[in-house]
């Protein structure tokens, strides 16, 4: 069993930055793929970024060049650095862990999910 706890969300002005963190419990973190997804009100949950156990990274086109995913296996933590934030980035951001290890853009590839942290981009 893996438990995921997100933090770092908040209210930020357009153009600003936030760093989300996701702390994972369990002994399999280093071999797991980790992903970030988001869900805005009235919309489906969508892929944001993923990192494989080998540290290969993947991004949605909408965030590529602005967001950076990274992981610290010693701390069992994955991060999402978000720069140049836009109002359309407003959503509940979820961390997810996948036992398969390779990064994936698909929700179904992930076995464990956090509760989410709210990001609001507004002036």
Description of the molecule:
This protein is mainly beta. Helix content is 0%, strand content 46%. It has no helices and eleven strands. It has strands at 4-7, 10-12, 18-24, 33-39, 46-51, 57-59, 67-72, 77-82, 91-98, 112-113, 117-121. The strands form two sheets. Strands 2, 4, 5, 6, 9, 10 and 11 form a seven-stranded mixed sheet that branches. Strands 1-3-8-7 form a four-stranded antiparallel sheet, with no helix packed on it. The radius of gyration is 13 Å and the shape is globular.
Q: Which whole number gives the mean pLDDT? A: 95
Low-confidence stretches: none
Helix/strand structural class: mainly beta
Please tell me what the overall shape is: globular
The tally of helices reads 0
Helical content band: under 10%
Order of helices and strands: EEEEEEEEEEE
What is the CA-based Rg, rounded?
13 Å
Relative strand content: over 45%
